[in-house]
């Protein structure tokens, strides 16, 4: 770890622990240089990291200060999902969200898009260019159904950060995380089977259940601690659940990180009832905390956890490269992979292996985590400023999604229809429920750096909410 990153994390921990309080002046650059035995430029770089993360603010001729304490909205209520399996609906609304191109003349607050405009992605573009110019055409051949060995080795190395020791031979490269989820579900379930899911939950996973003719059992979920383990245990006793599917780290859409003790307890429950776990870790590397949270897979000793992720949220969605570590279900996953897409495209795999292997991935992650954390705070400020009093919002611990909860009788689908003529789109909360719950909620993306255009879009959402509540639309 570079010295300035280590110093920034030390100072950040002191701020988070209250050693430096809101409004306090932070140590001078020279004082920190002497205290830690580092150069003045190292301290200045550390302060820039803290500034990007919203933990320090410079004042001309005065030094750095801890920003004033931010007001934050109340958290959303814990969901009260029905304790019975249901058929998944909402496909038409999901299609309406995903069919629009990111290049349409619409401010996309609803899509799960990372920011791809930063300079830290330039090495990836150079790698893609080099590979495409190779005379041997190596990027044009089929590779193994497992994926390229070079990328699988890099994925295995990255997995160490989440506490996992996974051999490259136990990793399968997929066409995005969506395919990883799909092959995992098909490998463990049959049509008519019941899958327990967190609620609200990623709409892509639930639409996969719908496509395969399976039922979802939505579990009550807390915006800080994740799914109710008590509700899960009752469900396992009452229903023949074939799979537990969840996103425990930097959850989409609530943004929580499930505490480590609860992850262990969840795995213990799955072992007791002999049920596999499908762990979606696509946002795990974007956790604001360091080190990043451990996965449930890292505690797994009998191969029942299928760990899925991708580079779509951390690097770029258009690369379409994901992966799965399926444990005991490897043979089935390979078969499902073969009959769905076969081998994943070779060229982007080679480019990503080069990008990660040459040390470009970690600096890119540091930049994006800092940007997303700052953008989260700004988006939250805008919601408090422009939305009606009493609006609740999540407090994401990673990723770039904010979940907003309005009054019980509000209709976010109607909101979306009213926003489109204004050039703005949000994701209605009902998309994240198998049965169409959360119509009074919405999800907004804050991945881009805050700009006047994005602020105007958020203001348009808040003002339209007020108009709908007042009966003016």
From TrEMBL:
SUPFAM superfamilies: PLP-dependent transferases, Winged helix' DNA-binding domain. Residues 1-69 form the HTH gntR-type domain. It comes from the Bacteria. Keywords: Aminotransferase, DNA-binding, Pyridoxal phosphate, Transcription, Transcription regulation, Transferase. InterPro entries: Aminotransferase_I/II_large, HTH_trans_reg/aminotransferase, PyrdxlP-dep_Trfase, PyrdxlP-dep_Trfase_major, PyrdxlP-dep_Trfase_small, Tscrpt_reg_HTH_GntR, WH-like_DNA-bd_sf, WH_DNA-bd_sf. GO terms for molecular function: DNA binding; DNA-binding transcription factor activity; pyridoxal phosphate binding; transaminase activity. CDD domains: AAT_like (cd00609), WHTH_GntR (cd07377). PANTHER family: HTH-TYPE TRANSCRIPTIONAL REGULATORY PROTEIN GABR, TRANSCRIPTIONAL REGULATORY PROTEIN. In the C-terminal section; belongs to the class-I pyridoxal-phosphate-dependent aminotransferase family. This is Putative GntR family transcriptional regulator.
């Amino acid at each position: 770890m570079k010295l300035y990153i280590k110093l920034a994390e030390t100072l950040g921990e002191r701020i988070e622990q209250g050693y430096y309080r809101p409004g306090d002046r932070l140590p001078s650059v020279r004082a920190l240089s002497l205290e830690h035995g580092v150069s003045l430029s190292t301290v200045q770089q550390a302060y820039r990291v803290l500034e990007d993360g919203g933990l320090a603010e410079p004042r001309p001729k005065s030094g750095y200060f801890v920003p004033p304490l931010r007001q934050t909205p109340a958290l959303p209520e814990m969901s009260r999902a029905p304790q019975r399996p249901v058929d998944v609906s909402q496909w038409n609304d999901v299609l309406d969200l995903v069919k629009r191109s990111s290049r349409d003349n619409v401010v996309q607050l609803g899509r799960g898009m990372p920011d791809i405009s930063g300079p830290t992605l330039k090495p990836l573009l150079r790698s893609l260019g080099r590979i495409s110019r190779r005379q041997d055409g190596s990027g044009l051949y089929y590779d193994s159904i497992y994926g390229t060995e070079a990328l699988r080795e890099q994925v295995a190395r990255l997995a160490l950060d989440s506490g996992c020791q996974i051999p490259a031979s136990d990793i399968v490269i997929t066409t995005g995380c969506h395919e990883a989820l799909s092959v995992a579900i098909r490998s463990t379930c049959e049509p008519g089977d019941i899958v327990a899911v967190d609620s609200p939950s990623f709409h892509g996973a639930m639409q996969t259940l719908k496509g395969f003719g399976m039922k979802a059992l939505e579990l009550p979920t807390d915006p800080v601690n994740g799914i109710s383990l008590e509700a899960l245990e009752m469900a396992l006793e009452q229903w023949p659940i074939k799979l537990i599917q969840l996103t425990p780290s930097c959850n989409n859409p609530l943004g929580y990180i499930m505490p480590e003790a609860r992850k262990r307890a969840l795995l213990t429950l799955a072992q007791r009832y002999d049920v596999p776990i499908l762990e979606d870790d696509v946002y795990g590397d974007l956790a604001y905390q360091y080190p990043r949270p451990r996965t449930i897979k890292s505690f797994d000793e009998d191969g029942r956890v299928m760990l899925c992720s991708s580079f779509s949220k951390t690097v770029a969605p258009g690369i379409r490269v994901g992966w799965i570590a399926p444990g005991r279900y490897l043979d089935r996953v390979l078969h499902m992979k073969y009959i769905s897409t076969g081998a994943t495209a070779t060229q982007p795999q080679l480019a990503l292996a080069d990008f990660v292997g040459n040390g470009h991935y970690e600096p890119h992650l540091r930049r994006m985590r800092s940007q997303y954390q700052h953008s989260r705070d700004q988006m939250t400020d805008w919601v408090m400023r422009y939305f009606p009093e009493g609006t609740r919002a999540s407090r994401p611990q990673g990723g770039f999604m904010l979940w907003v909860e309005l009054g019980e009788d509000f209709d976010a689908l109607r909101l979306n229809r009213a926003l489109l003529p204004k050039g703005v789109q949000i994701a209605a909360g009902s998309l994240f429920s198998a049965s169409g719950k959360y119509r009074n909620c919405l999800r907004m993306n804050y991945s881009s750096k805050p700009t006047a255009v994005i602020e105007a879009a958020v203001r348009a959402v808040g003002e339209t909410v007020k108009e709908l509540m007042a009966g003016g639309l």
